[in-house]
TrEMBL record:
<dbReference type="InterPro" id="IPR011128">
    <property type="entry name" value="G3P_DH_NAD-dep_N"/>
</dbReference>
<dbReference type="GO" id="GO:0008654">
    <property type="term" value="P:phospholipid biosynthetic process"/>
</dbReference>
<keyword id="KW-0444">Lipid biosynthesis</keyword>
<dbReference type="InterPro" id="IPR006168">
    <property type="entry name" value="G3P_DH_NAD-dep"/>
</dbReference>
<dbReference type="Pfam" id="PF07479">
    <property type="entry name" value="NAD_Gly3P_dh_C"/>
</dbReference>
<dbReference type="GO" id="GO:0051287">
    <property type="term" value="F:NAD binding"/>
</dbReference>
<keyword id="KW-0809">Transit peptide</keyword>
<dbReference type="GO" id="GO:0009507">
    <property type="term" value="C:chloroplast"/>
</dbReference>
<dbReference type="InterPro" id="IPR006109">
    <property type="entry name" value="G3P_DH_NAD-dep_C"/>
</dbReference>
<dbReference type="Pfam" id="PF01210">
    <property type="entry name" value="NAD_Gly3P_dh_N"/>
</dbReference>
<dbReference type="InterPro" id="IPR036291">
    <property type="entry name" value="NAD(P)-bd_dom_sf"/>
</dbReference>
<comment type="pathway">
    <text>Lipid metabolism.</text>
</comment>
<feature type="domain" description="Glycerol-3-phosphate dehydrogenase NAD-dependent C-terminal">
    <location>
        <begin position="282"/>
        <end position="422"/>
    </location>
</feature>
<dbReference type="GO" id="GO:0005829">
    <property type="term" value="C:cytosol"/>
</dbReference>
<keyword id="KW-0520">NAD</keyword>
<dbReference type="InterPro" id="IPR008927">
    <property type="entry name" value="6-PGluconate_DH-like_C_sf"/>
</dbReference>
<dbReference type="InterPro" id="IPR013328">
    <property type="entry name" value="6PGD_dom2"/>
</dbReference>
Length: 434
């Protein structure tokens, strides 16, 4: 009888079709071994029938997942993957470039040229690093006191850094050349030493800017001045103050070259535990960003000097970044270069930090000083002052509206006062952001 009564219940519980009570229930043949269902009905007073229903486990005995622990584990795994990738990449990279390099020449005795000379010399004690300088006093200071008395009097240079005023001896037998002469003087200087330059000597340009009259970048200036269109060329750029490089603080830069093999070679030559070097093929993007960020830094300094506040600073710099990107892409650069290390990274450093020479010029302009007095009191070249003059010509050539950078050029040319420039910029049409 129990089997007869249980059949409809089982059917209604486990069948996908609803049980129809208009028909008599079907009889089922149960297995010889009683099931739990039949035991409960056949033996109502058995232990099984009186057993308490299953209870939920004690929460205390089953600890809940810890979201913080899981998150930490995910972060740790991700970091370990990065480290494994890094070790694998380093093991595959060739490291014999430095061993095969015997001499590096640095053209220019300024702050960044000195910092790079010290950096390269520290990479290998047997490496000969020659600095070609024009100031006899600086030359004497480097050779006798192992310091650049003009720019780094308190920093001792490595013993393998030597200085000379003789271009022929400096360039003779060099494996690499670091060019650190200001842009506006580069062409005439290189023309004067061209006869001593080996046609296969790779030039690593540290100079940032545009030649005022010709609008040329260093990628054009160097091979044309040396009368060798095949002169190997690399541009080195990125957020880097010479003082911090001298102090061996962590720094990251980019080497850009059309020749991928050359870019990788220079990367191996310069990369160290405190200088990280990335490579790029976008020479135009790297050079344009490196040149125009100096002009934007003057604008940022003017905002600071006029005490216009953080809101205007953020608005101006972001607008300037857009203008640099508009022009660079019109000239064939990649947008990702402008938003990367040699673009946005260098812009942030130059616009917001007091060590920036160009920002200092802007601060003093915004405070009411005359440009002539500012420049005459400076011992270093602020490339943005000269480069600003090329901005208007480039904007016209490529049909790009660049209100912020054009305003800087007009201030430098005494066509606008900083106050008037701010008023005109604020009066521009309010258009959709691009």
């Amino acid at each position: 009888m129990a089997a007869v009564l249980e059949a409809p219940l089982a059917t209604s519980m486990f069948s996908s079709k609803p049980h129809n009570t208009n028909f008599p229930p079907k009889f089922h043949t149960f297995p010889s071994k009683p099931t739990l269902l039949t035991l409960r009905n056949t033996h109502p007073h058995s232990c099984v029938a009186n057993a308490s229903p299953p209870q939920d486990p004690d929460p205390a005995s089953d600890p809940q997942p810890d979201p913080n622990r899981d998150r930490r584990r995910i972060v740790r795994v991700a970091w370990e993957k990065i480290l494994r990738w890094s070790r694998s990449w380093r093991s595959k990279a060739k490291t014999d470039i430095l061993q095969r390099t015997n001499k590096v020449v640095v053209l220019g005795g300024g702050s960044f040229g000195t910092a790079m000379a010290a950096h390269v010399a520290n990479r290998k004690a047997e490496l000969e690093v020659n600095m070609l300088v024009r100031d006899p006093q600086v030359c004497l200071s480097i050779n006798e006191n192992h310091c650049n008395c003009k720019y780094f009097p308190d920093h001792r240079l490595p013993e393998n850094v030597v200085a000379t005023t003789d271009a022929k001896s400096a360039l003779l037998g060099a494996d690499y050349c670091l060019h650190a002469v200001p842009v506006q003087f580069s062409a005439s200087f290189l023309e004067s030493v061209a006869e001593y330059v080996d046609p296969g000597l790779p030039f690593i340009s540290l100079s940032k800017g545009l030649e005022l009259n010709t609008l040329r970048m260093m990628a054009q200036i160097i091979p044309q001045a040396l009368r060798n269109p095949r002169q190997p060329f690399v541009a080195l750029s990125g957020p880097s103050f010479a003082l911090e490089l001298m102090d061996k603080l962590p720094t990251a830069m980019v080497v850009a070259s059309k020749d991928k093999k050359l870019a990788n070679t220079v990367q191996q030559l310069l990369a160290s535990s405190h200088l990280r070097i990335s490579t790029s093929s976008d020479v135009t993007g790297v050079e344009i960003a490196g040149a125009l960020k100096n002009v934007l830094a003057i604008a940022a300094g003017i905002v600071e000097g006029m005490n216009l506040g953080n809101n205007s600073m953020a608005a101006l710099v972001s607008q300037g970044c857009s203008e640099i990107r508009w022009l660079a892409t019109k000239m064939g650069a990649k947008p990702t270069t402008i938003t990367g290390l040699s673009g946005t990274g260098d812009i942030m450093l130059t616009c917001f930090v007091n060590l920036s020479r160009n920002r200092t010029v802007g601060v003093r302009l915004g405070s009411g000083e005359k440009l002539e007095n500012i420049l005459s009191s400076m011992s270093q070249v602020a490339e943005g002052v000269s480069t600003a003059g090329a901005v208007i010509a480039l904007a016209q050539k490529y049909n790009v509206k660049m209100p912020v950078l054009t305003a800087v050029a007009r201030i430098i040319d005494n066509e606008l006062t900083p106050k008037k420039a701010v008023f005109e910029l604020m009066s521009l049409p309010q258009v959709e952001e691009v």
